[in-house]
Amino acid sequence: MASFSGIRTRQRYRELPETFYTPVRPTPLRGDIKLVHFNTDLAREMGLDTTSPEDWTEVGAGRALLAGMDPVAMKYTGHQFGMYNPDLGDGRGLLLWETEDPDGRIRDWHLKGAGQTPYSRFGDGRAVLRSTIREYLCSEAMHHLGIPTTRALFLVSSREPVRRETLETAAAMLRVADTHIRFGHFEYAAHSLGPEAVKTLADHTIRHHFRELTGLPENERYTSFFAEVTRRTARMVAQWQGVGFCHGVMNSDNMSIIGDTFDYGPYAFLDDFDAGYICNHTDQQGRYAYNRQPGIGFVNCQLLARSLISLIDEDDLRRALREYETTYNETFLELMRQKLGLEKGDENDLTLIMDTFSMLHEHRVDYTLFFRGLSRLPSRGATPVRDLFVDRKVADEWLARYGQRLQDESRSASERETAMCGINPKFILRNYLAQQVILEAGEGDYQPLTDLLNVLKRPFDEQPENEHYAAQPPDWGRHMNISCSS
């Protein structure tokens, strides 16, 4: 059994009224349990013993709880594809406890795939190997890309059959986050419990996760809290756009109150650039398409604002909401300047950026390879960029315009190349790579998962020995549509 000698543990979420949760014990997975992967790097950050990863298998399988674990299923609601759903909550996950890192950081432990809860509705409470591998991979990929995200500590599988579109096998994953409080928690409080519950939840969230605001007068404290959530959300979405990440299901119950990327489902990283790319095959109207993500982020902040109307004056809410557009635009512009290697701002940069997106869209150019090739122009020349275009004249015209813009820069070419290689990844989690790992894991071979994770830990490094992970996807792997089922 895993040991927690010297690790401080707690369960602060249970400070909230019982209307926000239900105590539930995990339902054990059946059959032989395998440890698919243990995140040694994260475990070390958390101050955990990493000498015997297999000790975590029983916890992951829901067969054992450590002393002090006090699992609860959280209650929340939210807007799904624009419609309010009052019947949401942790339908297959349990918040086990919190632990304190050696540096004082406190993290939630959430076991996903732990069995049925009062909020499972018609679900079986299980997660499947396919979806848990996808979340495990992507949360780690996003972390190493520098994008705020939940993390994954370990993943276990069983041979227990689970029915989705097809018959799959059950698995469970231990997700780690600074908090699992979502926008949907506030919607639940506002719609179902009333103003006092909203205040209680806001006070709890500020006290534990926005401690820099605790000394402000009450009215100012709530306004500042909402404004900060809005800014964090805007920055997160801008970072998604910059790296070409499509979340796929930006329901308000999937929005973290601290601005973490949360609940990885039918996500994708762009291959050939398609501004309107829809990665979720159930999103028939394209509500969560790549180019609509910034707007949906704002809509979700509006929904949160409605939930806080009992605490914050409407005019203050409107002013705070305006922070979203300002923060998004500033973050996105600065990020794209960095991706283009532009250190000095120019009033025409936004036009150049948008024209670049239009060109990539019209000619379906691989997004990641384009910017990585651009990063290496000084040392490798224009051929890798030109070869991404069917019509190389288009590339040549754009490169000439780009070259003119670089005339205004003072950095040396080598300095610019180093900086750009640190912002434009060579390696991203393309869906076909995840799919290959899933197929191998389904046959009991977990080494490809470990190999891919090791590549994704160093997305900005050259890694010549792993060149095949950076290649364009095969025809079967382009623009894969992924199901919400998990």
Automatic annotation (TrEMBL):
<feature type="active site" description="Proton acceptor">
    <location>
        <position position="253"/>
    </location>
</feature>
<feature type="binding site">
    <location>
        <position position="92"/>
    </location>
    <ligand>
        <name>ATP</name>
    </ligand>
</feature>
<feature type="binding site">
    <location>
        <position position="112"/>
    </location>
    <ligand>
        <name>ATP</name>
    </ligand>
</feature>
<keyword id="KW-0547">Nucleotide-binding</keyword>
<dbReference type="GO" id="GO:0005524">
    <property type="term" value="F:ATP binding"/>
</dbReference>
<dbReference type="GO" id="GO:0070733">
    <property type="term" value="F:AMPylase activity"/>
</dbReference>
<comment type="similarity">
    <text>Belongs to the SELO family.</text>
</comment>
<feature type="binding site">
    <location>
        <position position="263"/>
    </location>
    <ligand>
        <name>Mg(2+)</name>
    </ligand>
</feature>
<feature type="binding site">
    <location>
        <position position="182"/>
    </location>
    <ligand>
        <name>ATP</name>
    </ligand>
</feature>
<feature type="binding site">
    <location>
        <position position="254"/>
    </location>
    <ligand>
        <name>Mg(2+)</name>
    </ligand>
</feature>
<feature type="binding site">
    <location>
        <position position="125"/>
    </location>
    <ligand>
        <name>ATP</name>
    </ligand>
</feature>
<dbReference type="Pfam" id="PF02696">
    <property type="entry name" value="SelO"/>
</dbReference>
<keyword id="KW-0067">ATP-binding</keyword>
<feature type="binding site">
    <location>
        <position position="124"/>
    </location>
    <ligand>
        <name>ATP</name>
    </ligand>
</feature>
<keyword id="KW-0548">Nucleotidyltransferase</keyword>
<comment type="function">
    <text>Nucleotidyltransferase involved in the post-translational modification of proteins. It can catalyze the addition of adenosine monophosphate (AMP) or uridine monophosphate (UMP) to a protein, resulting in modifications known as AMPylation and UMPylation.</text>
</comment>
<feature type="binding site">
    <location>
        <position position="89"/>
    </location>
    <ligand>
        <name>ATP</name>
    </ligand>
</feature>
<dbReference type="InterPro" id="IPR003846">
    <property type="entry name" value="SelO"/>
</dbReference>
<keyword id="KW-0808">Transferase</keyword>
<dbReference type="GO" id="GO:0030145">
    <property type="term" value="F:manganese ion binding"/>
</dbReference>
<protein>
    <recommendedName>
        <fullName>Protein nucleotidyltransferase YdiU</fullName>
        <ecNumber>2.7.7.-</ecNumber>
        <ecNumber>2.7.7.108</ecNumber>
    </recommendedName>
</protein>
<feature type="region of interest" description="Disordered">
    <location>
        <begin position="466"/>
        <end position="486"/>
    </location>
</feature>
<feature type="binding site">
    <location>
        <position position="91"/>
    </location>
    <ligand>
        <name>ATP</name>
    </ligand>
</feature>
<dbReference type="GO" id="GO:0000287">
    <property type="term" value="F:magnesium ion binding"/>
</dbReference>
<keyword id="KW-0460">Magnesium</keyword>
<keyword id="KW-0479">Metal-binding</keyword>
<feature type="binding site">
    <location>
        <position position="263"/>
    </location>
    <ligand>
        <name>ATP</name>
    </ligand>
</feature>
<keyword id="KW-0464">Manganese</keyword>
<feature type="binding site">
    <location>
        <position position="175"/>
    </location>
    <ligand>
        <name>ATP</name>
    </ligand>
</feature>
